[in-house]
């Protein structure tokens, strides 16, 4: 869509006829903010036919999923199938690999299926919920190939690099050119994994720091505020919580760890980061269990199910992992998530969904915050306290102001709670 918006003629191929139908009807199959509006304003051809998609193309882009295989490695069958279809139907052209693929994949395509194409690794850095802004105004564009392909890639991206396009909704062209990094394929592929692994590492460090602060009676929020003032550290990806999830960080950290090991290198820091993330959810659950296990017929209200705010996506969601641990304990659980209406097909199996936070908390022994939806900060905690049976509030995302919860009669607990049992 970004390529179409900046003036390129674009055709989109997908094997799923339902998805193509909904895109032709200008409907957003993903729930991405501003997606449907932008789609409505563009002329893009949507097709399920490879020959219709690739005829006369000057560039073909592979953006298929790379799910995780049982070993933790990326499963590349969709990428190779797409490359085969391109090789069969497209003229010799630029072949951009946007899918997140292990280092060496683009080289292998160049040597094999896509021999007569100029294969370029061109990783994608957009975030779910910010897809339009991140594509039109990216922090950087990374591409890797042989030197003769660089100028064609630069031409394709020039309107985005120069920020030459019509403002759309909340997205306006930046006054600054976007940086373009040209390198060889392997470095471009690794840059993608390095970015996700670095952010995941930052988050696991912050979460570990929050656990240490809790053990020492320090206030992690104050520690992080002061830490963020250092421009070398920065304030982004510094919010502690029950861990990082989604369809990217968990899969990509495991894939990087796996292909590093295959190449003979044990990426110890990354292994610890992944382990810490798995532990974080379990620690949070144990905090809830220890506080409630003496009560009969426990009922929990979970606020938030998606892996982060701004999406209905529950893939590898830490909030959903907490929900499953609570259910495994044999306790009743009702969840409310602003993006998952009651009766929605997106609701995870076996989870009772309420239509509001108030409905979810009725008669609950404890409220658990699982996702960082900002609207949870505006809840009327005094009303909620009148509706709950118990007074415990476990904030798994450090988004509720402890004083507000306490003033409303809740006992505030969670990842950022300051312990009143300070060690000597
Ligand atoms: C992530 C990267 O941020 C994108 O740059 C990348 O392109 C994308 O993966 C991908 O590989 O396709 P996304 O999966 O949409 O994007 O998720 P993020 O917004 O990065 O959040 C990941 C997780 O970190 C979420 O569970 C979120 O709740 C958590 N998080 C984020 C925190 O716990 N604290 C923070 O301060 C920030």
Describe the protein in words.
This protein is of the alpha/beta class. The chain folds into two domains: 2-186, 3-Layer(aba) Sandwich (Rossmann fold); 187-424, 3-Layer(aba) Sandwich (Rossmann fold), CATH 3.40.50. Helix content is 40%, strand content 12%. The protein has 16 helices and 13 strands. The protein has helices at residues 2-5, 17-24, 35-40, 50-54, 77-89, 105-111, 131-136, 150-161, 185-216, 220-228, 249-262, 268-292, 318-328, 357-361, 381-387, 402-407; strands at residues 11-13, 45-47, 59-62, 94-97, 118-121, 141-144, 180-183, 299-303, 332-336, 352-353, 366-369, 392-395, 411-414. The strands form four sheets. The chain has a six-stranded parallel beta sheet. Strands 3-4-5 form a three-stranded parallel beta sheet. A two-stranded parallel sheet has the order 1-2. Helix 9 (185-216) packs parallel to helix 12 (268-292) and helix 12 (268-292) crosses helix 13. It is globular and about 70 Å long. The termini are far apart. The model has no long low-confidence stretch (mean pLDDT 95). The protein binds uridine-5'-diphosphate-glucuronic acid (UGA). Uridine-5'-diphosphate-glucuronic acid is lined by residues 100, 124-128, 196, 199, 203, 237-239, 241, 244-246, 248-249, 252, 307-308, 372.
């Amino acid at each position: 869509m970004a390529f179409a918006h900046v003036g390129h003629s674009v055709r989109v191929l997908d094997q799923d006829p339902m998805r193509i139908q909904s895109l032709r009807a200008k409907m957003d199959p993903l729930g991405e903010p501003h997606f449907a509006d932008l789609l409505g304003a563009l002329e893009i051809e949507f097709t399920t036919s490879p020959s219709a998609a690739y005829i006369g193309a000057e560039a073909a882009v592979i953006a298929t999923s790379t799910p995780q295989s049982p070993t933790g490695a990326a499963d590349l069958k969709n990428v190779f199938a797409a490359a085969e279809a391109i090789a069969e139907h497209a003229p010799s052209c630029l072949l951009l690999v946007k899918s997140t693929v292990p280092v060496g994949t683009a080289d292998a395509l160049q040597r094999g299926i896509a021999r007569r194409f100029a294969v370029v690794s061109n990783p994608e850095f957009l975030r779910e919920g910010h897809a339009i802004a991140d594509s039109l105004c990216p922090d950087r564009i990374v591409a890797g190939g042989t030197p003769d392909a660089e100028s064609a890639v630069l031409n394709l991206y020039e309107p985005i690099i120069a920020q030459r396009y019509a403002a759309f909704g909340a997205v306006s062209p930046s006054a600054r050119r976007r940086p373009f990094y040209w390198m060889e394929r392997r470095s471009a592929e690794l840059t993608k994994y390095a970015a996700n692994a670095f952010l995941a590492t930052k988050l696991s460090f912050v979460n570990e720091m929050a656990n240490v602060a809790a053990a020492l009676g320090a206030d992690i929020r104050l520690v992080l505020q002061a830490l963020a003032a250092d421009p070398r550290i920065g304030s982004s990806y510094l919010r502690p919580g029950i861990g990082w999830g989604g369809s990217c960080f968990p899969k990509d950290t495991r894939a990087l760890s796996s292909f590093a090991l295959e190449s003979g290198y044990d990426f110890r820091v990354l292994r610890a980061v992944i382990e810490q993330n798995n532990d974080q959810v379990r620690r949070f659950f144990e905090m809830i269990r220890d506080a409630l296990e003496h009560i009969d017929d426990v009922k929990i209200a979970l606020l938030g199910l998606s892996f982060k705010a701004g999406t209905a996506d529950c893939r590898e969601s830490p909030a959903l992992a907490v929900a499953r641990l609570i259910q495994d304990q044999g306790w009743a659980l009702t969840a409310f998530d602003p993006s998952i209406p009651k009766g929605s097909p997106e609701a995870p199996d076996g989870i009772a969904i309420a239509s509001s936070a108030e409905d979810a908390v009725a008669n609950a022994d404890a409220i658990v915050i699982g996702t960082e939806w900002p609207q949870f900060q505006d809840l009327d905690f005094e009303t909620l306290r009148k509706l709950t049976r118990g007074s415990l509030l476990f904030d798994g995302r450090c988004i509720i102001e402890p004083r507000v919860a306490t003033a409303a009669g809740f006992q505030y607990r969670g990842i950022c709670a300051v312990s009143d049992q300070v060690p000597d």
